Amino acid sequence: MSFDAHQLADALEFATVSYAESTESTNTDLLADADAGPWTVRITTNQTAGKGRLGRVWEAPAGANLAMSVLLTPTSLDRIGTIPLAAGLAVADAIGGTRLKWPNDVLLGEKKLCGILAEAGASATAPTAARVVVGWGINVALSEEQLPVPHATSLQIAGKTTDHTQIAADVLRNFHQRMQQWQDNDPQLLDDYRAACASIGARVRLETHSEAIEGTVDTVTDDGRISIDGNAFSAGDVSHLRRKDGNYS
């Protein structure tokens, strides 16, 4: 299904939409754009050099994936670690039947539907100002044969809508609302995240850059860290998180 950038722009009164038929990385595009303002959205259905956390590659055939990024200019960095959680929650808000694997992988059933990467950079005109780019890679129209890994899935496989334009509009509208909660430091944001998080209550193996920990996930803290048997870890400290029962989530 073709993407309609004009329809998306009309649906998002708070955003500036920039569409590319093909690009290496929507995150990289926005970080390099010194003229981009808050809520500038870069979007494509053919991302050729997508990236995930810790340099992992995110691949999909042309037209099968929705890659989009949005530029934020938060006034405070105190709770910046919870922005990626809000980004994952926005997808769960938009797509029924989804849950979240901490910190922000979106699951459909026990399989990964969407990955999210947040990156920070300095402003060229105001080097001390924060510029945060949040990027989503959503598997929309991949077939079983096209899935990059066994623990992935797509909206098409699940029998859900594959209208790229509608999916983008729904996710971005929900993210805008969630970021208003973030700005207001509304506790409902993390309460809703915890309710959608499949990791809470699970027996897991967590790997940091120096050790491996096994235990039960107690909660996700107000600053976005995962707590395992009373010990909290930030996303930046964690290289892998897997359930002990073998499920991806």
Automatic annotation (TrEMBL):
<feature type="domain" description="BPL/LPL catalytic">
    <location>
        <begin position="2"/>
        <end position="183"/>
    </location>
</feature>
<protein>
    <submittedName>
        <fullName>Biotin--[acetyl-CoA-carboxylase] ligase</fullName>
        <ecNumber>6.3.4.15</ecNumber>
    </submittedName>
</protein>
<keyword id="KW-0436">Ligase</keyword>
<dbReference type="InterPro" id="IPR004408">
    <property type="entry name" value="Biotin_CoA_COase_ligase"/>
</dbReference>
<dbReference type="GO" id="GO:0004077">
    <property type="term" value="F:biotin--[biotin carboxyl-carrier protein] ligase activity"/>
</dbReference>
<dbReference type="Pfam" id="PF03099">
    <property type="entry name" value="BPL_LplA_LipB"/>
</dbReference>
<dbReference type="InterPro" id="IPR004143">
    <property type="entry name" value="BPL_LPL_catalytic"/>
</dbReference>
<dbReference type="InterPro" id="IPR045864">
    <property type="entry name" value="aa-tRNA-synth_II/BPL/LPL"/>
</dbReference>
